[in-house]
Amino acid sequence: MASPDTDRAVRARQPHDDGGHSAPRPGPIDLAIHVSFYVLLATSTARYLTYHGVSGRFVVVAALVAALAALYAVTALLSGRGGVWQPWVWPVLTTWAVLVWLAPSFAWCAFPMFFLCTRAFSTRTAYLVVGVLAVLTSIAFFTFSGRTEWAVLIGPLCTGALVVIAYGQIERDGRERVRLVEQVAEAKSRLAETERAAGVLSERERLAREIHDTVTQGLTSALLHLEAADAAWDLPSSPAREEVGIATASLRENLAETRNLVHYLSSPNLDTQSLGTALLGAARGYVPTAQVRVIGEPQPVPPDVGHALLRITQSAVSNVARHAAAQTVGVTLTYLPSAVALDVFDDGVGFDPTAVGNPSAEGGFGLPAMRQRVRALGGELTVESTPGEGTVVAAQIPFERAPE
């Protein structure tokens, strides 16, 4: 989408019907040209009256002056309103030529008309018309001076050439400026499209992480407890009722998490309790015996950092409950001078971190999602594990994100 400045620049240079010549819309320069034309026309008329009076050709000259003034006014008015005004230039030039033939002093009006022609016609046509006007003006001045002033013969020719060359350069510079503005607007439009696409992709990834760390993990926990209850249902002193109760509580919590996800994906309970307490509740939602230890002086953390630590804890402890067969699960929250660190460890079966596959319908999304969360906040996440020796998931996130 082009910017408003580009639209104005393009509208200011519309092609004409006579050959595609673009001219700027009327502005202060055009007003000065029109005013100078009428000043020169009035001055030439006054001089004619001074030297010739009202006798002889005065009636014809006065009629031509009135016609020229009216035709020029129509041309100026139409050009100011954006109408088709170029055809009116020809009657103006014809009337002026007849007037100069009758009274050479009116040749002074040619100089404003040099600019008028450069605006009205295409470049080649403007060169030809201005050249003819300059020749007629030179002849008129030379005749008017008694054929003694050679400077007046050369002056209009040079002036016409300078006007055409200067105005042509202005035209080229203006077209180049419009082209550059259009290129900048197009580049901005492409950049905006790229940013929107990147934003959509980032939001999809964020939603995937949120769903994985809330709905998926909660349902998995509830499923594990229900499966345990089913396996122990008929045993003496069966803990099935306790397992069903835990699953029910997990489903309730998962329902609350889903509602939070719908309502702007807000982190649960971080506004009403400490981060350590929230992490303990998140961990025990999957492993009831999980412990949380806080090291250092607790201090406020940015909401996005607390939210990420909570989701990482949920994802890591859920993985422990599903895969590790651990007896001990611990979470350590460490407040550093400029960062906060989280360690989730267990004494389970462990695994080879380098052998983790890509995410699929069966799982494998947890570790990549945790890494994306931490990297998005300018932190680092490491996973240390060896088969048979447990696992440690460690994340460290600065309080303030470093500039990219």
Structure write-up:
With 404 residues, the chain is an alpha+beta fold. 62% of the residues lie in helices and 8% in strands. The chain is built from eleven helices and five strands; from the N terminus they run H-H-H-H-H-H-H-H-H-E-H-E-E-H-E-E. A five-stranded mixed beta sheet has the order 1-2-3-5-4, covered by helices on one side. It is rod-shaped. The N terminus is likely disordered.
Segments where pLDDT lies below 50 for 5+ residues? 1-24, 359-363
User: Considering DSSP H and I runs of 4 or more, what fraction of the residues is helical?
Assistant: 55-70%
Query: What's the count of strands?
Result: 5
Average pLDDT metric: 76
Q: What strand order characterises the main sheet?
A: 1-2-3-5-4
| Straight-line N-to-C gap | 28 Å
H/E element order: HHHHHHHHHEHEEHEE
Question: From the helix content, strand content and strand pairing, which structural class follows?
Answer: alpha+beta
Number of helices: 11
Q: Per the principal axes of the C-alpha atoms, what is the gross shape? A: rod-shaped
Radius of gyration equals 43 Å
State which percent range the strand residues make up.
5-15%
Largest sheet, strands/sense/barrel: 5 strands, mixed
